[in-house]
Amino acid sequence: MVTSQIEINFASNNVDKIAEATNILRQFSIKVNPVDFKVREIQASNIEEIAADSAKATAEFAGKSVVVEDAGLFISSLMGFPGPYSSFVYQTIGCGGILKLMRGIHKRTAVFRSAVSYCEPHHEPRVFTGELEGKISLTERHGRKFGYDPIFIPDVTPSKTFSEMGLLEKDQVSHRFKAFKKLAFWFLTGKEEP
Ligand code: ITT
Question: Buried-most residue among 66, 87, 102, 104 (CB within 10 A)?
């Protein structure tokens, strides 16, 4: 008997995110087809709302089902900044700017959040979320370079930043892993992950 492989269309302009989503969903035997356009990103204070709106608009425009993800780094001492503005802040002040804002601040807790939204044309979007707690490092610690990875130390691996982890290691613990795992569970079983 031939069973067809489950595939998703992942709309993102970020090659690092596409690579991570591909690695993560491979663990669940789901194939990722990159879609290199994503319709609008509204300004909103929560990433679930941003992801859902973008998934709906992109699915209508593309005329097919799509998945989009909105992610962000939320730093406690900065009242959740950069949060939903993570992309703009990364492109402007970057990791160095965040470390400057954090100078002299002892409380360095932060959380990475991911909101993954699936939508079919003429349907309402579904959203799956994941988060991972950690701390902001005192200096940039590079390995692989993706976004804020060089300054985020997950609590589960207190000796290394995300950047210093191998990609496979990150893809088994990250905020993105947790959100995509919920999507995969729903795809494979038709139920929400308990
Ligand atoms: P899309 O086209 O998929 O929207 P994007 O780069 O705009 O790509 P997001 O809005 O989801 O993606 O993410 C905002 C920024 O947060 C992103 O550009 C990175 O700088 C950073 N970021 C997101 N996930 C990250 C991760 O796992 N590690 C490090 N930085 C991350």
Answer: 66
Dump pLDDT digits (tens) for 131-145: 999 999 999 998 888
Exactly one of 53, 70, 149, 171 is catalytic; which is it? 70
Q: Is 189 exposed, middle or buried (0-12, 13-18, 19+ CB in 10 A)?
A: exposed
Q: Would you list the domain boundaries of the chain?
A: 6-189
**For residue 42, pLDDT beyond 90:** no
Domain 6-189: give its CATH code: 3.90.950.10
To test ligand 1's pocket by mutation, which of 90, 132, 141, 144 has the most ligand atoms within 8 angstroms of CB? 90
Q: Where are the alpha helices (DSSP H) in the chain?
A: 15-26, 47-62, 86-92, 94-101, 167-170, 175-189
From ligand 1's centre to the CA of 106, what distance in Å?
26
